[in-house]
Specification:
mainly alpha, Glycerol uptake facilitator protein, about 65% helix, 9 helices, globular
């Protein structure tokens, strides 16, 4: 797959992800008529469903990261060349803002307007650490044990994390930056974004270290398909 195709896939995928997150947040809030729980439920379900579709759509092209934290983890694991990390992150951020503009356009909102939705404090930063740690844990654990279920596991985790974290689980620096430009249900104040991003990067780094140890990479000549569980390779000799 050419480098250009991978970058376009990452940009498009991230744009659609933000369109889903922002658009479903706006729709949910309008239809819920003040019931925040119903609005969040609609936002979470739409995001989970969208993630499955987008990962299945773009996974075989770019890996469907849509997330700088995931890209940095993949580069750390040497799953992608380190030289790809900055271009990936650049198109993810550009795509995220494009997705915000697309969602706003669909609902008659200004293309960009700074959010005044307060999301700050130790509890929310810790939530973002946990949310991102869990996301990377799911990605690494599933991709190294049962890769075919990874899209569904990621979507299920994010849907759940909308509800079990006080921050509603951004778990993505590109998403965080773009949501700061949306004064809607899914927004975050620009001044609050750096705290979220630092917590996300720390969570991603911690999960990469822990889960690469729990799920060691298979031998280069391994023939056991679909798993890298150490027990699958114990005592085996590969030609």
């Amino acid at each position: 797959m050419t480098h250009a195709r991978r970058l376009v896939a990452e940009g498009l995928g991230t744009a659609f992800l933000l369109a889903v997150v922002i658009g479903s947040g706006i729709m949910g809030e309008r239809l819920a008529e003040g019931n925040t729980a119903i609005a969040l439920l609609a936002n979470a379900i739409a995001t989970g469903c969208g993630l499955v579709a987008l990962i299945l759509m773009f996974g075989t092209i770019s890996g469907a990261h849509f997330n700088p934290a995931v890209t940095l983890s993949e580069a750390w694991q040497k799953n992608i060349p380190a030289s790809d990390a900055i271009p990936y992150i650049a198109v993810q951020i550009a795509g995220a803002f494009a997705g915000v503009a697309a969602a706003h356009g669909m609902f008659g909102e200004p293309l960009f307007f700074a959010s005044d939705h307060v999301r700050t404090g130790a509890a929310q930063w810790w939530s973002e650490f946990i949310a991102t740690f869990g996301l990377l844990a799911v990605i690494i654990g599933c991709s190294r044990s049962r890769p075919t279920v990874t899209p569904f596991a990621v979507a299920a985790y994010i849907t759940a994390a909308y509800w079990f974290t006080s921050s509603t689980s951004f778990a993505n620096p590109a998403v965080t930056l773009a949501r700061a430009a949306s004064d809607t249900f899914a927004g975050i104040r620009p001044i609050d974004a750096p705290g979220f991003i630092v917590a996300q990067l720390l969570g991603a780094a911690a999960a990469t270290g822990v889960f690469c140890w729990l799920y060691p990479a298979p031998p280069k000549d391994a023939t056991v398909g679909g798993t890298v569980s150490p027990s699958e390779f114990a005592g085996r000799k590969h030609s």
